[in-house]
Amino acid sequence: MSAPTLDRPTDEAALQRQFEATIAADRRVEPRDWMPEGYRRTLIRQIAQHAHSEIIGMQPEGDWLLAAPSLRRKAILLAKVQDEAGHGMYLYSAAETLGADRADLTDKLIEKKQKYSSIFNYPTLTYADVGVIGWLVDGAAICNQVPLCRSSYGPYARAMIRVCKEESFHQRQGYELLMTMMRGTPEQRAMVQDAVDRWWWPSLMMFGPPDDDSPNSAQSMAWGIKRHSNDELRQRYVDMTVPQAEFLGVTLPDPELRLDPDTGRHRFGAIDWSEFKAVLAGNGPCNDERIARRRAARDDNAWVTEAATAYAEKHAGAVA
Ligand code: FAQ
């Protein structure tokens, strides 16, 4: 029997110390490394929620694929929605490195045992919503996800680097669409303003509950999974977005929104957390519709999964 080395301790207390040293030195934890069970569970929870958000997040914009106003807009939207599918796949792969099973995660989503972002439970009523999702929803996603590129878990952090590059393109395409509409007719400008009015507050809720009501933040930050608190990122998003709204020529629907000259940050009105809680409880405008469609996609396409699995097994046998 070989003696334990300094690099690979075998007793739990030493493994815990080594894990803590990795976190303290801001190095990445990798799938082969020992990790506390709570760290693994927290990562699976967050990464699964994130993956589900990307997959369910294809639906609100996907609803407009057949009604895009031009071939150019359809090609752009199709590429964006496909990117979101890709993000979901990277994230499910990252969850698999922690021992999660992808089919099981999908089942948990459909059975409402795991969450996805509240934002995707709102309807897309006009084509301006496609632009506003790109600008505000992808903008919020970037604010939240750029710090996750430095998350302590290696596969998650690396997935975020590519995801953020693509989200950045998504945000710009949304803003470009809105700029085009704002240069159009009074009706088009009104559509943009109406979409901003409906999406602004839900976009602020994407960052999660306020810090004093966020049960997971403290531990997730101590473990380096999250780098900033929910309120810090929300504030950063507001500060980033207000000048963009001014340039675009729209009004953000918050009479209390103003620049605080002392801090250089924007103060904003109270968020309606009862709406957030209702959406999380399944009572948003589109919760049932989103899950029903995901369930149908799983069930109707089960034969594709079975065929691909059979092919992979046959191929693995041939190679061996
Ligand atoms: N919606 O203690 P905390 C995108 C839950 S991707 C639903 O603060 P945590 C790309 C939370 O899970 C958008 N649930 O939790 C795209 C927890 O529940 P649990 C998704 C929410 O994890 C763009 C409970 O509340 N992005 O948009 C929400 O420390 C356009 C207590 O909350 C990510 O997932 C919410 N908004 O912080 C796609 C980013 N907020 O599990 C298509 C990664 C909180 O204990 C089109 N995730 N909850 O039962 C994170 O950064 C974190 O998980 C937070 C929440 C910040 C979302």
TrEMBL record:
An annotated GO cellular component: cytosol
Domain of life: Bacteria
SUPFAM superfamilies in the record: Ferritin-like (SSF47240)
Protein name: Ring-1,2-phenylacetyl-CoA epoxidase subunit PaaA
Organism: Geodermatophilus obscurus
Short name of one Pfam family: PaaA_PaaC
GO MF annotation list: phenylacetyl-CoA 1,2-epoxidase activity
Lineage of origin: Bacteria, Bacillati, Actinomycetota, Actinomycetes, Geodermatophilales
A GO BP annotation: phenylacetate catabolic process
